[in-house]
Amino acid sequence: MPRLAANLSTMFRETPFLERFERAAKAGFSAVEFQFAYVFDPADIRSRLIDNGLTAVLFNTPAGDWDRGERGLAALPARRDEYRTGVGQAIDLALELCCTRLHTLAGIVAPGADPEAMRRTYVDNLRFAAQFAAMSGIEMLIEPISEQAMPGYFLSSLAQAADIIDEAGEENLFIQYDLYHRRFEGPDLIAPLETHADTIRHVQIAGWPDRHEPGEGDPGWRGVFEALDLSDYAGFVGCEYFPAGRTEDGLGWARPWLRPAGEGTA
Length: 266
Known about the structure:
With 266 residues, the chain is an alpha/beta fold. It has eight helices and eight strands, in the order βαβαβαβαβαβααβαβ. It has an eight-stranded parallel β-barrel with strand order 1-2-3-4-5-6-7-8, surrounded by four helices.
């Protein structure tokens, strides 16, 4: 039975970030993920998790200046030191929140950039991050992101991700499989899951192509849930979508996999 995690960076956005933990718990979630939370006191986040009976299952390492269009640093040769400092910051926060998985963003390929130099930097940085994280029992994840959603992103396919993981050679480096991004490549979401089952540690979901709630118009995600039930997948399914309206009003699709609304809150 897939375990759902509310993405607090995209859901419950009608309220400030720290208030979203309680709303997620009241809606029936037992786990949360988010993109970034470095501007908050880690103790405040931890208390929100504890008070609401929630587990933090994933967040991103620092990704540069998001508001200026930066989408990660791991593959950018000129930002090596900044990236590695950010990895340490992310690990510190993960330990505070008892979170055992971190996603690290590669970055955008700038005009005139050398793809081979970026790949070498990416692999080298991933080795550093994975080795550093392994000392704290943390797994590092990389996510292929579609060109449609993030033009110019360095990592765009599952095959590329698997190849890079093989080259890096670290035992705690895995794939984050986002059904929304994969859907741009075709309707079959199950075959890629089966092909890369050994390296997938986190799944994310959103309706396609509008990135709202998963819906009946794009039923492929239901097959993925069935495949996860039949496999040994022990991770979570992160709900990284932007609700079409009030978050709670659109959770009908998720109700079979949520605990009774309000259960588990203080």
